[in-house]
Amino acid sequence: MKITKVEPLLLDRYLLVQVHTDAGITGLGESGAWGYLEASEAAVQKYGRYLVGKDPLLIEHHWQYMYRFSHFRGSAIMGALSAIDIALWDIAGKHFEVPVYQLLGGKVRDRARVYYHVFGSTREELVAGVADAKRQGFTAVGHLTPFLDSNREEAYFKTHADKIADAIDAVRQYRAAVGNDVDLCIEIHRRMTPTEAVQLGRGIEEFHPYFFEDPVTPDNFDEMEYVAQKINIPIATGERFTSLWEFQMALQRNAVQYVRPDVCMVGGISGAKKVAALAEAQHVKVVPHNPLSPVSTAACLQIAACIPNFGLQEYPTGEDVPPKSDLVTGIAEHDGHGYLVLSDRPGIGVELKPDAVKRCPFTPREVETRLDVDGSVIDQ
Ligand SMILES: [Mg+2]
Fold first, then answer.
1. What sign has the CA pseudo-torsion 147, 231, 241, 342?
2. Given this chain, do its domains 3-99 and 102-345 carry the same CATH topology?
3. Which string of b and e fits 119-152 if b means at least 16 CB within 10 Å?
4. Mean pLDDT, to the nearest integer, of 347-351?
5. What is the pLDDT at residue 326?
6. What angle do helix axes 59-67 and 268-280 make, rounded to 10 degrees?
7. Which of 20, 117, 143, 289 is catalytic?
8. Segments in the chain forming alpha helices (H)
């Protein structure tokens, strides 16, 4: 079997990749570099020129060959490599007529527990979203800010005391809305300094969050370690990491208690499986990052199926426009009790609908960064 074509497809807000073969098998993957999909598309085309004519089943060899070409790194390139890796695993599964997880040791569970996405530009919307998740049968919610999902065009100002006290009160309201029936994955989106993060982390400890996600930017592992050492709730991080080696640097500092590899950016299914093993060696659980299309979800579920240290699966539910069913067939079903049922279809289990690109035109994300009222740039 030989690869005949590597085809990047920009559609909706996603970059999917199809790898075609002369055996009539097509593999599907996705890039997770959502801020820079156009750059990732260019990297897919470049890798495609290497791959055409090669055996698609030599997945690890191709991974090494592409990654170690000159050792340039970063999310646009790793998103491309990840998309191709996922597509090659999809081809391998279809070739051997088994789900990908069967090629990775077989499944260790039948269902994957998920966390539901909650969004809101007001406190009332956020509390209602948490309660709504419980009503729908979910047992965990995430993407859950203790601030607000505010419009980035609005300049920001709060006093320090108000910022911290209000955020603690938000978490109190979320817990009150659902009791202990729903786990709260508190998402900070990299917007605090280390000392702010420690104050807020200590303030919400009594509400037993499942984890405290990305309290500080991913630029400096020592800062995340500083926060982790001073709070008594677990830190989740890793969604912007692009390699096994970054996870190793965070894990060896005990700076992370839940790793969040993005299968579409950390080197695909190959990369995520290795990150899971690194984490397993420290009894750290894996919560695959998954904010994108159902192709990403399908790839994540291959990992969730076969690793012993799986924690939760992110399940993007809040921005379903157009519906995911418009893009692919074979989407994993929610069982009504907070789990997705694992597919036993060959490969990653989903197929792109033939007219998806035509029906879901690409909408590029423009650069939009929030400002302070004084005109300076802040993180949000
Ligand atoms: Mg996150």
1. negative
2. no
3. ebeebeebbebbbbbbeeebbbbbbbbbbbbeee
4. 98
5. 80
6. 90
7. 289
8. 37-51, 59-67, 75-96, 100-103, 123-135, 160-178, 194-203, 221-230, 244-252, 268-280, 294-306, 356-359
What's the gap in Å between 355 CA and the centre of ligand 1? 31
Report pLDDT digits (tens) over 66-77.
999 999 989 999
Place of tokens 């998309």: 83
Mean residue pLDDT across the chain? 96
Q: Where are the domains of the chain?
A: 3-99, 102-345
One of 160, 189, 208, 334 is an active-site residue; which one?
A: 189
- Hey, what are 337's tokens? 């009790």
Read off φ and ψ for residue 256, nearest 5 degrees.
-145, 135
* 201 burial level (CB within 10 Å; 0-12, 13-18, 19+): buried
Reduced to 3 states, what is the DSSP secondary structure of residue 217? coil
Pick the CATH number of 3-99 from 3.30.390.10, 1.20.1290.10, 3.20.20.220, 3.30.1360.120: 3.30.390.10
Span from the CA of 214 to the centroid of ligand 1 (angstroms): 7
Q: Residue 95 Cα, ligand 1 centroid: separation in angstroms?
A: 34
> Residue 135 Cα, ligand 1 centroid: separation in angstroms?
24
Within 10 Å of residue 4's Cβ, how many Cβ atoms? 17
User: Confidence class of residue 317 from pLDDT cuts 50, 70 and 90?
Assistant: confident
Instruction: Name the pLDDT band for 48 (thresholds 50, 70, 90).
Output: very high
Q: pLDDT > 90: what percent of the chain?
A: 95
Q: Which CATH architecture has domain 102-345?
A: Alpha-Beta Barrel (3.20)
* Residue 337 falls in the annotated catalytic set: no
240 alpha carbon – ligand 1 mean position (Å): 9
Active site residue 189: yes
- What is the average per-residue pLDDT within 110-127? 96
Cα 249 to ligand 1 centroid, rounded to whole Å: 19
Q: Name the token pair of 157.
A: 């100002």
**Is pTM, for the whole model, over 0.85?**
yes
Structure tokens at 294: 């159902």
